[in-house]
């Protein structure tokens, strides 16, 4: 981490917003003043200004049961009504909500009126299957309009969706379906990726078959969208085609209002243990901050902008910046099903040019891979429609930031680097693009109404120029409300470390520069960040050890130029396997094993077959030392190792 700090410290450039940008920006400096004068009153104003309440709230923040918090608790609203019907009622039904482009090049333009109608039908269809308030629905889909429709239909009837990234394996899907006891799975036959149909339905079938783990069979129906046209197995009692069920449903459906704290969704994210956590988000506070950050941080003007957030709905960014935030504002946005490099590496820039995208929100890993391909590719397209760029998911290195601004943002657009997490629900630390003079590599300042600090191990704020741990010092509207089925884990993971102060511990290292601006330095726990996706070292280790050839495994996140971090595994094989197979062959097998068990994003970049692992006397694997090896650095302090010679053995084996 220290080399990161040194590197970041060299960065001193600043970019003030142009007067033209500042003049039209939604966010102005007085937001900070209003929020500082009365933080809770500020959020209450935002909730009233940005959302429609069926029943107005009188309470703002209730923390009588800390660390649990409630926002706007006695109010009632419909998330779906806020994202759909009210725009139609306001006369904007003809505005395009979704500009969908499939990977093969097919296109659909869906207006707010059409989207509202489709969601009403899907809501009726789900209710027809007996799904209602509080029921869980798993969504395992490609990024197609029906995925958005499915989420909003759940919201409309008060069912709780749990979106599982379509790149996850049958096993990962099964554990999430089981944990939430989902009653319905919504999926597709397949979706398009890299020019081919990537099947999804077989993984659902597999996840629901032979549940030998004693899990109760909760899934009554699987609703399947026809997208890939691939052949699928069919269970007549359980499976239903979307086009039979939803298309024939009535398009009349009045959206009932639910209490502000009604759960909206569960989203599983990796923690430090092997078992993913089901992060719970509720309705009123979540939608307030989702709408607020889309309006002020991303500066969306619904009547004129074309917004494109490139995230998949399987991640929280897709929830807040593809579905709930932009639609709550009534914005027009692009959704694209496929991969950036298909059929050629300029595909994203073709999309920007074709739809006139004005605000692009993406991840540093994508920017770095475009940098690798070279500037000619974007420069061959007309990107002049872009006026604001956003970054999310991991620290953005200054080189990538500057390249993003120069090459994609024609040297002019502001860049907002937005720090947040699945747990925070929406952006927490970011520039206001019309106000803040931005610094490449720094997320900079907490949003108006958000209190964030960098503290030392004892919870004391560090002075400017120093590093420590990032904390949120007061509850915020879109904060997670708990971990599904495990309130203890919620307290333990996020609130135990700074219990005395009542701070939320984010798990990220950070530094305040001389101006007090915040620089994020990456995770301080055993969570890796690969291409902006959170992966747990423990989860991948358990998968490796579950393979019959493996005796022991340790996984680390090594530095990677493109993906930020990459999964590197050190594996001790069972003797019996070593004598019968080549290490190379087994490494190949293990890589695809992990990919099958967890998903392709978890597939180790490198697997090193070693004879020992570095352990402390208490038996803890010293991943820090393995990370040095994986990064090709000189191995650090080994004095706490039980056997200090082990690192030279490992280093020799890796070479
Ligand atoms: C939104 C999202 C959260 C973790 C977070 C941090 C890293 C996200 C960042 C960033 C530096 C940024 N992270 N945004 N680090 N600068 N702008 O990514 O949620 O998948 O839960 O990951 O990602 O380490 O703790 P999630």
Care to describe what's here?
This protein is of the alpha/beta class and 655 residues long. Among the domains are: 38-283 and 298-339, ANL, N-terminal domain (Rossmann fold), CATH 3.40.50.12780; 531-654, GMP Synthetase, Chain A, domain 3 (2-Layer Sandwich). It is 33% helix and 22% strand. It has 23 helices and 30 strands. The strands form 8 sheets. Strands 12-11-8-6-7-14-15-23 form an 8-stranded mixed sheet, sandwiched between helices. The chain has a 7-stranded mixed sheet with strand order 5-4-17-16-18-19-20, with helices on both faces. Mean pLDDT is 93; it is low at 1-9. Bound molecules: ligand 6R9. Ligand 6R9 is lined by residues 269, 315-317, 392-395, 417-422, 443, 506-508, 520, 523, 529, 532, 534.
Structural class: alpha/beta
Helix content: 25-40%
CATH superfamily of the domain at 38-283 and 298-339: ANL, N-terminal domain
Radius of gyration: 24 Å
**Count of helical segments?**
23
From the N-terminal CA to the C-terminal CA, the straight-line distance is 24 Å
CATH classification class of the domain at 38-283 and 298-339: Alpha Beta
Low-confidence stretches: 1-9
Second-tier CATH architecture of the domain at 38-283 and 298-339: 3-Layer(aba) Sandwich
Q: What small ligands are held by the chains?
A: ligand 6R9
Shape field: globular
Largest beta-sheet characterization: 8 strands, mixed
Strand fraction: 15-25%
Write down how many β-strands occur, each being a DSSP E stretch of 2 or more residues: 30
What value does the average pLDDT take? 93
Q: Looking at CATH, which topology of the domain at 38-283 and 298-339 would you report?
A: Rossmann fold
Q: How are the strands of the biggest sheet laid out side by side? A: 12-11-8-6-7-14-15-23
